[in-house]
Structure formats: structure tokens, C-alpha cells
Amino acid sequence: METTVTLAFLGTGSMNGAILQGIVRDGTVAGAVRATTRTEATAAALAGGIVQARSVESDPQANRWAVTGADVVVLGVKPAGITDLLADIRDALSPTTLIISVAAGVTLDTMQSVVTNPVIRAMPNTPALVGLGVTGLAAGAGVSAADTAIARRVFETVGWVLELPESQIDALSTISGSGPAYVFHAIEQWTVAAQNMGFARDDARNLVERTFIGASALLAESDAEPAELRRRVTSPKGTTERAIAVLDQAQLDEVFTAAARAALARAAEIAAENSAR
Ligand SMILES: NC(=O)c1ccc[n+]([C@@H]2O[C@H](COP(=O)([O-])OP(=O)(O)OC[C@H]3O[C@@H](n4cnc5c(N)ncnc54)[C@H](OP(=O)(O)O)[C@@H]3O)[C@@H](O)[C@H]2O)c1
Q1: For the segment 1-15, what is each residue's pLDDT rounded down to a tens digit?
Q2: Domains of the chain
Q3: Taking a C-beta distance cutoff of 8 angstroms, is the pair 100, 154 a contact?
Q4: What is the pLDDT, as a whole number, of residue 3?
Q5: Protein residue with its CA nearest to atom 48 in ligand 1
Q6: Ligand 1 proximal residues by C-beta, below 6 Å
């Protein structure tokens, strides 16, 4: 698709800032970008090239300025601020402007109770900061195929995108949203194991972290599935085979499923807490 759009990022911190950088790096999705933050210092740091930025500290109308004439508005403030922000910008929006929210736990219904615009919920993860994110996109009722296509282009500037119904977005969050924490947790545990094998902490960290990064890069470059790549380092009757047998005894598939279910149960609790407010 050749068309370029005018994008507004409202609340341009860690997550929206990563997407903004992806858009600027890509150079083909947006012809112009307006970004807002709360404080002037963070806004000033964003401005340059196709990006204009204002803070609500210097201009209380900054968010309304940013959405005026925008084709797509990406909301990146904390979840508790989403409905107030939508109420603030509501009458500055064109009726066809696509709204995308990256806020965790704020439902399409909640947003559609404030605005009638097409709305998409996005759930990116932190590797978006290095362009290797995974984002789930759930579209509301009034979203056209063209809207979904533009949302996909926005998030593909920072990684891979999966479209899914909103009913699955919490499940996606238990895998890819929380997933970076699971990987860091595994790295922490293997670093302890390396120290238990006699390595000093710095050496242990290098051995483990570089092995995770290297194996991930090998997987990314290869057409083979992880099981096949694992077999290639697991000679029959060899040392790796013994280690894998111990890991298999721990029934990690069941442990991981239980962990994902615990995260899903917590998402339901948080939703209930928020709707009871
Ligand atoms: N981080 C993640 O892993 C992740 C993953 C998925 C989804 N999310 C979602 O992303 C959203 C933001 O999280 P984050 O980690 O990026 O937080 P963050 O770094 O604190 O970013 C929040 C941004 O909102 C700005 N802001 C606050 N009030 C504003 C207002 N009234 N108008 C305009 N801008 C305002 C802040 O400006 P100042 O910096 O000047 O205060 C900051 O730029 C959350 O809803 C979260 O659920 C985050």
C-alpha cells in the first residue's frame, strides 16, 4: 500500500515511543506525525523530522491539536487515563479517524462508550523497542478492512502482528505480552545453574545470555523448527540428552500452561476490579 497517513501519538512514553521510532525508521507509513506527552522535556526530545511534539504541560490543548486532521490516533497513556483522554479529544476527532489503544485491560466497549470512531485494541510487547515485537490486534465493530490494514502496517514497523478477536487478547497477553519476562526468568535460573557449575557471576551471565541470544538468532535464521534444532545438539547417548531428560521430568509443558492460566486468571480479576470502580 502506497498511501501515507497522518498519525497522532497521545502519550509517547516507553511503548508508544517505540512505535513512533518504528514509524520514523520505516519512513513509508506516515507522512506526518504529531506526538504528545505530559511534560515539556519529554515532548522536546521527540520533535524533529516528520515529528511535531507538544506537551499538555505547555499546552493544555495539545492532545486536541494532535488529533485534528489525523487519520490514525494511537493512545499510549496509562490504562487509567484512557477514557478521560478520549473524552477530551472526542469533538476534535473526524468521525472516520481510526483510534488504536495499546493500553492493557481497557476494552473496546469501554472506549466505544466514549467515542463512536472505529477502535482497535493493540497488545504489543517490549521487544518492540528493538523492532522485534509481537503485537496482537483486536478490531471493534466499526473497523474497515482498510483500517485494519493501516493498523497492521503501523505495528509491523516494530515486529510481527497477529489479528485476533478481542476475546483472545488476554490469552495472547499471557504468552507474548508477559513472554519476555518468562525468557528473562529462564536466563536468571540458568545463570544460577552456571554459577553452581563453578563460574563467576560475570562469566555465568555471558555464557547464558549469549547462548540465549545466539540460539534465538539461529532459530530466526533457520527454516527448521526448534525441536529439530534441539535434536541437532542432542547426540544419542550424549550429555545434552541426559540434561533434556531431567528437564522433561519436570513436565515443563504443564508448568508453562499453569503459568499462562495464572496470568489469564489475574487478567480476569483486574477486569472485574476495573468494572467495579
Ligand atoms: N510497557 C509495556 O510493556 C507495555 C506493553 C503493552 C502495553 N502497554 C501499555 O502502554 C501504555 C503506556 O505504558 P508505558 O510503559 O509506555 O508508560 P510510560 O512510559 O509512562 O508512558 C506514558 C506516556 O504518557 C504521557 N502522558 C501522561 N499523561 C498524558 C496526557 N494527559 N496527555 C498526553 N500524554 C500523557 C507521559 O508523558 P511524560 O513522560 O511526560 O510523563 C508518557 O509519555 C499503558 O497503557 C500500557 O498498558 C505497555
Answers
A1: 556 899 999 999 999
A2: 5-164 (3.40.50.720), 179-258 (1.10.3730.10)
A3: yes
A4: 66
A5: 15
A6: 10-16, 36-39, 42, 56, 63, 76-79, 81, 102-104, 123-124, 126
